[in-house]
Amino acid sequence: MSAHCYQQRKQRFRISALALAIAASSAALAQEAGVEHVEVVGQAVSIDKALKEQRSSDSVKSVVHADGIGQLPDDNAAEALQRIPGLSVERDQGEGRFVSVRGIAPDLNSVTINGTLVPSPEGDRRAVALDVLPSELVQSLSVVKTLTPDMDANSLGGTIEVESLSAFDHDGLFYSISGEGSHDDNVGKTSPKFSGAFSNRFSLGDGVDNFGVAAALSWQERDFGSDNVETGGKWDFEDGARLEELEQRDYEITRERTGFGLNFDYKPDDLSSYYLRTLYSRFKDTETRNAAGVAFEEAQQAGERGDAEGWRELKSREDTQTIQSYVFGGERLFGLWTLSGQTGYSESRERNPGGIAGAVFEGDFSDAGFSSTRKPRLAVESGFYDPSRFELDEVEWEKSDARDREKNIRLDLARDYDLKGYAAQLKFGGKLSRRDKSNDSEIWVYDDFDDLTLADFQAGRVDYGLGRFGPGISASGIKGLIGGFDASEFYDEEQSRINDFDMREDIDAAYVMNTLDLDRWRFIAGMRYEGTDFSAKGTGVRDGVFETISSSRRYEHWLPGLHARYQLSPSTQLRAAWTNSVVRPTFGQLAPGFVIEDDEAEFGNPNLKPLESVNYDLGIEHYMGRAGAVSAFLFYKDIDNFIYNTDLAGTGQWANFAEALSYENGSGATLYGIELAYSQKFDWLPAPWNGLLLGANATFSRSDADIEGQGAKRSIDLPNHSDTVGNLMIGWENERFNTRLAANYKSEYLAEVSGVDDAAHDLYVDGQLFVDFKAGYFITPSLQLTFEALNLTDEAYFVYAGRQRYNAQYEEYGPTYKLGLTLTHF
């Protein structure tokens, strides 16, 4: 066993032992202290509030609520949501980012903040990276899985609703101040975090406590990194499994996250209420990536040796993502009528002010090979680690600015009435939404360097945990070099223009729905109309000649829905729903730009049809006292026009092309499964067991989709769909102590489809199991000390080509440890 592996195992043992020791000592100390009352704050408070909201909802809905001290159970919104039944998280550098609902890809779900849509800061996506939102700014998170007609229909798996802090969430003055230090095991650095929240009510006019102000602020700077080895799936399976190339990568990242929210609520009387919600979040990544790789002269099997072209590459850039949201709305009662309205503006942006997109050094080497097909380890002559053997080939400098803005106004009118002695409500309204998505990038490519080698830009040895790496590259040295050139002489017009686009998406919506309470039944029936105007402008290049591209189209959808809820007993209810939804393609798929050179082409498809889905849900919920519930739901989705990437070469206008990469609509797909959940606070047990909490959920599903092209046809799973997702949480708490051990699992999923006739090169993400631990101790009733250990199992991210034996990407992050202190008053 290597010293590195031994140290890793020893550290895992120590942390596991520490977790068990804290859990055991918490229970023992509680028993010694003779605690008689169940906690007044903590995990059970959060779970109980969430279940009450879920129980009264007209939709199939799951909720994560801030606990009694105003904190979500995780550091960011994405990681908090992974505890919800049917949800899993796509991680970036080991940190939760994008949320998948019931196995549906993140781009096919929508996110709202305080009722208004959140656009995506990334240029080609609709998915919102929820790690942009610090947990301190959020009061509750919910996922609505069956949409009622008064909701936007633009989600296939579910709509994620983010609600920020309101002064009416607490009685009187509330404040919370936190400080935290986190240590990343991969880079060996400790990072700070500070946050605070405040709310209070004031009396205006003749009212009492009728005006509320709430504010939250969060700042974190985190240093972390990862070790990576990848092949990109470049395996030749025709003559055994032969590898064409591989690359080692080392990431070092500083992530600065800042968030601020300021909210106002005014309730002048019992008939009206008004609110203003504001939120600003800034997410800045400063990333340095050193890479070292080889391309074999002839594809090789593991253990073989031969000649290869080697390279070393540096990427050093700064990306800043911002989200800002402003929502003003209110409600007024007029007898049996209720008038409500809201106007919102949201803007997301991602900016790179200019950075090294690639500084490449190249050289030729012999005696090159690799071992292991799953986690390839490079074996090469010693000259590969001599910086003078690598000559500078080119430097690419890039700056970019992607912006996504959405404005909307909504008006709803409802009237309560009596229908033969039964309570009923008629509700109707409309919404106008205007969205503008743009992307602007500029690229410079510097080349024709004379006699410059890596030795002139060496920056010490790279700390890489997956094998021998060698020298790194100095970012300051590269910047100093190209700073002496006339940038205008190296501007790459083709790469700059083809990535630029401007797209507009205008949606006009109207609906009508009726709610009827009939003995133990509640029915909601209605119809939603959505008309969409879409236009796109961009640039294509055909054999070196630029072409301006524009496209526009309009389509309409009528979307009926029916919800039913039946009260079997005071604690048990049945739910059923038939809904229809429509999801537009991603902006990257719709991009009008193209590149055609000789017999190769790559292009977006602005004529893609939106995905349409008919959804059926049936389930039962049983509630069991404090923080207790058990539920089971069946769901089935019949999806038309799902979208997949494909190669159109050999068909239609691309008949004489060797490669024509684009996107197509599939004819149809299905997704079905069962969702199970259980939660329980064992407060009826004798001390110390009355502090025990248990939560578990699992979703088992299947998907099937047909794709065709190049004269072939085959069935695939829906991309990004994991057929098994599960969570397990074991916790314990009393007035002084709280502990939680949480595990999150999702099975493998299809990440990228290769050619229709080339299933062997489809890329899959392997299953992952993340285990986290948290413990808290109240030094005083207002001051809590917390400890967290994240990714205790040191889970890796692994992508494979066709079969699990063949690497496309392998990445390790290591665990993270946190120590924090929170002062709260409420």
UniProtKB/TrEMBL annotation:
Residues 370-792 form the TonB-dependent receptor-like beta-barrel domain. The keyword Metal-binding does not apply. Keywords: Cell outer membrane, Membrane, Receptor, Signal, TonB box, Transmembrane, Transmembrane beta strand, Transport. Residues 1-30 form the signal peptide. Its main location: membrane. It comes from the Bacteria. GO terms for cellular component: cell outer membrane. It is a multi-pass membrane protein. Residues 54-159 form the TonB-dependent receptor plug domain. It is found in: Cell outer membrane. The keyword Magnesium does not apply. NCBIfam families: TonB-Xanth-Caul. Belongs to the TonB-dependent receptor family. This is TonB-dependent receptor. The lineage of its organism: Bacteria, Pseudomonadati, Pseudomonadota, Gammaproteobacteria, Pseudomonadales.
